[in-house]
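Sequence design from tokenized structure. All designs in this work follow the same two-part layout: the structure record, then the generated sequence. An example of the structure record is given first.
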């Protein structure tokens, strides 16, 4: 390559451009072994091969119109994890009307709380202490992606219910397993603590044993059970 002048290199390039089928047979992995180490850049050589075979070809993925769901997520800045039916969210009150409360997410997405969904007792704008700028906690009741609005309910009865969908639950969180593990850890720590404060005694007796209070209770229960069994047998 270093011995070729510019004209010779241009002729070589023009030659393979007119016969691109020759480049199809070129194995880049084998070609790398025959050139200097400073030129052994596989990605660059592959790009050169493609350019010589398909000059000025656009290798980008063809543009596709986004679906309605994709538009909603892109423009709102939210995701299915943050906005899903049944999820508990917090919004800021922007405008209080007679039949609804207009709120806003931090992302700018609009949220609506209808008067019937504000509380189990209803909503009265005149007597309510709700003001603009207050933060409301509610549960997502419906997501209207066409109008870019989320409908919430703040009723205590609805908030106590289980989520409408599993979108509010972490797939890696298992409450039952965590609870059982916590109980086991607590029992194990209590046993370790009891053994830590246990002071053994040096008493020479064939039936004496160094036991903790819990172990002694277990032995007593076992002795009582054996005595009851013996009593029944004798009776």
């Amino acid at each position: 390559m270093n011995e070729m002048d510019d004209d010779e290199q241009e002729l070589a390039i023009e030659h393979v451009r007119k016969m691109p089928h020759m480049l199809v047979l070129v194995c880049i992995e084998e070609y790398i072994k025959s050139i200097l180490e400073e030129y052994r850049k596989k990605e660059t050589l592959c790009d050169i091969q493609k350019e010589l075979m398909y000059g000025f070809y656009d290798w980008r993925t063809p543009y596709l119109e986004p679906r309605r769901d994709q538009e909603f997520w892109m423009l709102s800045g939210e995701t299915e994890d943050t906005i899903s039916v049944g999820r508990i969210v917090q919004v800021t009150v922007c405008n209080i009307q007679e039949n609804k409360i207009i709120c806003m997410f931090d992302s700018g997405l609009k949220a609506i709380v209808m008067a019937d969904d504000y509380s189990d007792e209803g909503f009265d704008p005149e007597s309510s202490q709700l003001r603009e700028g207050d933060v409301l906690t509610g549960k997502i009741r419906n997501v209207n992606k066409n109008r870019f609005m989320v409908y919430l309910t703040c009723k205590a009865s609805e908030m106590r219910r289980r989520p409408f969908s599993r979108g509010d639950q972490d797939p890696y969180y298992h409450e039952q397993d965590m609870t059982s593990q916590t109980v086991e850890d607590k029992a194990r720590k209590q046993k370790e603590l009891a053994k830590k404060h246990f002071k053994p005694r040096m008493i020479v007796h064939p039936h004496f044993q160094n036991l903790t209070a819990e172990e002694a209770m277990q032995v007593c229960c076992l002795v009582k059970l054996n005595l009851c069994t013996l009593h029944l047998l004798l009776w």
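The two ends are 110 Å apart (CA to CA). We note this feature because it recurs in several other targets discussed in the main text.
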